[in-house]
## 1
Amino acid sequence: MQISSRFTLAVHIFVCIDTFGSEYKVTSDFLAGSTNVNPVIIRKILSQLKGAGLIEVARGTGGTTVTRPLDKITFFDIYNAVECVERGELFHFHENPSANCPVGRNIHHILDDKLFRVQSALEKELDSITLADVKQDAEKYLREENIYPNAF
Amino acid sequence: MQISSRFTLAVHIFVCIDTFGSEYKVTSDFLAGSTNVNPVIIRKILSQLKGAGLIEVARGTGGTTVTRPLDKITFFDIYNAVECVERGELFHFHENPSANCPVGRNIHHILDDKLFRVQSALEKELDSITLADVKQDAEKYLREENIYPNAF
DNA sequence: TCTTGTTGTAATGTCAATCATTACAATGCT
DNA sequence: AGCATTGTAATGATTGACATTACAACAAGA
């Protein structure tokens, strides 16, 4: 299985807030337009990001703002916020290995630390990338677009 | 989403082959007993492992053997064999970001290298763990069981 | 205070993947 | 030939993802 597109959507949302926030009111409809994803899905993600304290969403009036400097928000923060992985466990284990088999009743002992190492490697890399890195590249690509505005 | 239990099942299967292969004929029914998973599912996984050249399965007569020394089979080999991740892409991207939005039409450029880094970190760690490592721990736990055979 | 634009959320539906299960032809020993 | 086993198709239950409709709650401006 793949990690839910909620993750890439969430990052997309942050880029939009940063790029357009000063010029436009960034609503769920606005974001739905940019991502081409249903506004209700966007609101669900916004609600998760809000729950993690990463953004603030204005009820009634609408609009979204980021609560922290971008270099203080990592991919791991976002990944946790949008709950890409059930119970924080990357690997799905077969539920009931046989207690009658020596291998079956020890398979968790044998594998858990190794699976944890793999999961930690993923999480560590996620934690090494911040939205400031993303912003930097975003600005680079948007600038190049302005230099060659009609290139395609 | 989580990585399919096919992965942990496949490792479990290897441990069984190594532990019991000299004493028993390791059939899909035998493995179904140890894993507590339907034999047809086991056969599907065996077929994928066979397709990757990691094991051989005897038609008709039944039984499974490993084709290589265990230190030459990594978790990454198994992970690839059982196709836990579609198209090899760990992150599911939202399909059609808006071409009318500067962010929408650049989001792939902006994110792809970062997502690739994360995926590579996962794969590198998977590749650093071999079935020989698993065998070593398996023997340790099984030995401890024999020292305290009725412990629980 | 009424209107307007928006958020939050429930309800429903479609689709794809996982895993279980039944069934059976094909296979290769004995 | 008989037998245990593999390979595979078909069907079903369950779950998560994402889309969509609907509407109450909300905040601000007219």
## 2
Amino acid sequence: MLDDRKLAVLRAIVEDYVSTNEPVGSKALVERHSLGVSPATIRNDMAVLEEQGYITQPHTSAGRVPTDKGYRLFVDRLSTIKPLSAAERRAIETFLNGAYDLDDVVSRTVRLLAQLTRQVAVVQYPSLSRSAVRHVELVPVADQRLLLVLITNTGRVEQRVIETPAPVSEESVAHLRALLNTCLDGCRLAEAPGAVADLPEQVPPDDRPVAATVLSVLLETLVEKHEEKIVFAGAANLAHVDFSQSLREVLEALEEQVVLMRLLGEAGDSSSLTVRIGTENPHEGLRSTSVVAAGYGVGDQALARLGVLGPTRMDYPGTMGAVRAVARYVGQILAGS
Amino acid sequence: MLDDRKLAVLRAIVEDYVSTNEPVGSKALVERHSLGVSPATIRNDMAVLEEQGYITQPHTSAGRVPTDKGYRLFVDRLSTIKPLSAAERRAIETFLNGAYDLDDVVSRTVRLLAQLTRQVAVVQYPSLSRSAVRHVELVPVADQRLLLVLITNTGRVEQRVIETPAPVSEESVAHLRALLNTCLDGCRLAEAPGAVADLPEQVPPDDRPVAATVLSVLLETLVEKHEEKIVFAGAANLAHVDFSQSLREVLEALEEQVVLMRLLGEAGDSSSLTVRIGTENPHEGLRSTSVVAAGYGVGDQALARLGVLGPTRMDYPGTMGAVRAVARYVGQILAGS
DNA sequence: ACTTGGCACTCAGGGGCAAGGAGTGCCAGT
DNA sequence: ACTGGCACTCCTTGCCCCTGAGTGCCAAGT
């Protein structure tokens, strides 16, 4: 029902509109792309495309603008992900290689991605529950206070201060620490509750209340909290775009952790690259923005996601290329550290 | 040279302009404020105020608008800091009391301040070099790898992985850890280099290379890095303000850590409340914004600063009240934890 | 020496109007 | 099935004029 030329017309409309930000007319199209037919023919094709809902005109006697549905078709069938230039690859490498801890990796990544795409970048911290334990440390800091430090294989470090119900001896702490490490070493955090289930039994009866407290804090830290740590950068890039809706709504959405989380979507396997266009987004205030997101992680399994948010009128092939490249590279960095 | 009535006129102009965002004329002034004189008189006063540079008119036949100099006079001599309402105080308390670690305190604070003032809030993490050591932990995580964890009296936790030049025994680590804690306990980080200067001499010769490595990493962590960790929130509040300059410039400035740091100014004593108006700001892109900032900390000494950025046309008394209240409260929270 | 009312002047903002131009839909011809 | 021609729509721009808010100045009053 849509022959090749109509698809080519749609592609041309998307490309022109993205680069000029102005409704594109039939005459301009034949001039800028060598379609080999006359404007009138294009007009007929456009009428069909409009009827099917792929494009629309802001008002009679204006050119055409792609609809969300039009962008969707473009992304799915009419475009290919554009690989980064050599210079861009080098930039990623040099910029990310300087990072010295997880915080630094994430903050560099988000700034890099924002700069690369000239849009708003969003990066989720590696999910705790999908990471594995590298080391658990238990340090007495006061009479009835322990510091719990948890280090994951993604370099993430969590700490919590624990108030113990009773004073604990150095030896008890050492014993508990050893037990914890034995139970948990290399264990995925999501499986931690199971791994420590029978731990209390291995503790001397006197220390059981303390052990219970420590365990409950530990599990709470892993499961409940921080699952949703997420940052963004590049808000300045929104400023020169004129949204149909208010810029304020978009900024507000960006400052809500929960919204950001849902925006990136669920982490699937590492290589998944997803595009959400306009109203496909799960948030009201982002009706006129699109999100390009990818999972990243150390192996096949994605630990978390990162992506880019911009106007629906964005350069999808280029953005997808950048997001994919950065996601891969961050994965390598995390694996290597 | 400026009699009482002229000052009253200036105050009225500032207040009206802040609330209406429109140049204020002589007639409107006498109507809204009971000045007891006629518009013509006010006009004469205005002419004087304009000549002296406190107000200006966007164009002939428009009302007057305060200049930076006018706001400065207003802040210095014509206004008093407005205390928060009981409801606002309660809001601060309940919102901040739920925090469970430093990250959480800071992120809650910045969001709270943004909401309270309806502007952009900026909060600097407690400066490392001004904090004191509460505990140093040294954990072997692999054959030639140690994890260094540093806990400060502000609840800040820093960690670094250290590659040692040679394998280290458990005992050596324990010994080194004990030494470090003896030297550093309660010590201000800024004084740490002095405190550990003679530490290598107390280490057995075999362990000296390792000790040296650990020390260099420790000092590097304290001094070099992280000094400038800083966050902001509430960018959405900028959206409905129309800046004379581009919004983009402001957003860009906000995303530069260095600029933010200079914006808040140097931490002085705890109670200092500073206001920077328009061109008094050290950054080009922020010519038409003002910053209200205060130090916060556990004792008299400020550990860091926090503040608010908004258009020069802001409610100074209210903003100053909010910033001061939040700064005090955060200090209490940190001291108590 | 201030203060005041009166008055002429300035200028941004908005409505109305016409010209220009980009783009469309439709139709008849090839 | 494509194309050229043509009438039509309607946004945009520029222009003009008017209105209203606000000013500066002056002369008179206290």
